[in-house]
Amino acid sequence: MSFCSSGLKRVGAQLALVLIGVAPLAATAAMYDEPAEGSDIIGRVQHIKTQESDTFVALARQYDVGYRELRLANPDVDPWLPGNTDVIIPTAYVLPDAKREGIVINIPEMRLYYFPSKNSANAGKVFTFPIGIGRQGWGTPLGETRISQRIPNPTWTPPASIKKEHAEKGDPLPDVVAAGPDNPLGQYALRLALPSYLIHGTNKPSGIGMKVSHGCIRLFPADIEKLFSMAEVGMPVNIVSQPYKIGWDEDHLVMEAHPPDADGDAPVKSFTPWVQELIGATEDRPNTPVDWNLAERVARQTDGMPESIGGGAGGSRETAPEEAASTDVSPGDDADGNADPYRQG
């Protein structure tokens, strides 16, 4: 059970796209056109070249991705001293297998999706944000709920259990943490009808994309501000656990896998879940050719990168410049020089 809201009160590409020496000034909310019926993919993978001063924590906030997402997509890069290195920014996503309404949170992915209502100014769009989730022993619960309250400038009254935990670490907490820069809830909070749980900001953005909370959902400050501006009381919230997401990009079958265990780090122990997902995804297209060996590799790697595993030819999900991309054949290309459209670099 989470107690993070106790006592809460309102107080007022391909690699051709290389950004050398240039980084976004600040993260902006990722907004995409909602895919047409029968399609499930949004976004495109980006490639950058890092600077000497970069770290994954900084890059995560700049590109609005989670720290772990960067680690999984770039396992051979030092997250603290990447140097001048080619780095993948994993900004292509298979949408969760859930009703595209309100907020959908996929715990293994550490990512939130928001589907505006049809009468909204943002109708037909999809927003997605990286999140921080409950750490071991404080897991974020699954299930359907709704937003019960919007709270700007929240205060925080830590419960006895959390005060005790902090006191044992030599970091005692006051009875009430006032709204402001020292408040761990940030500037905005959305209370869920699920007792004691919130979607909120943070005063420690480095924890986004990690298991750091006491069960609540944390967002980057800019992301919670954007979500808060669109969220309404009564909006549905669906918290799911889908480590294996399989969907369609037109006639191309695409798979995306994340570490499936509760803490998000243990290796795959059972193939049954992703096999079931794959069978379900192709139920309406039973004659779809599937590369089962490739699907198994994607399931084992759990690197969060969408990859084509069957169906017909599909377009690239890579961000590419206006000029023609390099024609060099990479190790991932087939005999005809056709690179996999979802995993390049």
From TrEMBL:
Record Pfam families: YkuD
Region feature Disordered, mapped onto this chain: 144-169, 298-345
Biological process annotations from GO: cell wall organization; peptidoglycan-protein cross-linking; regulation of cell shape
Residues in the signal sequence: 1-29
Molecular function as annotated in GO: glycosyltransferase activity; peptidoglycan L,D-transpeptidase activity
Record-level GO cellular component terms: extracellular region
Keyword Signal listed: yes
Record-annotated L,D-TPase catalytic domain positions: 101-240
Keywords from the named record: Cell shape, Cell wall biogenesis/degradation, Glycosyltransferase, Hydrolase, Peptidoglycan synthesis, Signal, Transferase
Active site: H200 (proton donor/acceptor), C216 (nucleophile)
Gene3D superfamilies: L,D-transpeptidase catalytic domain-like
Pathway: Cell wall biogenesis; peptidoglycan biosynthesis
Superkingdom classification of source: Bacteria
Annotated coiled-coil segments of the chain: none
PANTHER family in alphabetical order: L,D-TRANSPEPTIDASE, L,D-TRANSPEPTIDASE ERFK_SRFK-RELATED
Similarity section: Belongs to the YkuD family.
Listed name of the protein: L,D-TPase catalytic domain-containing protein
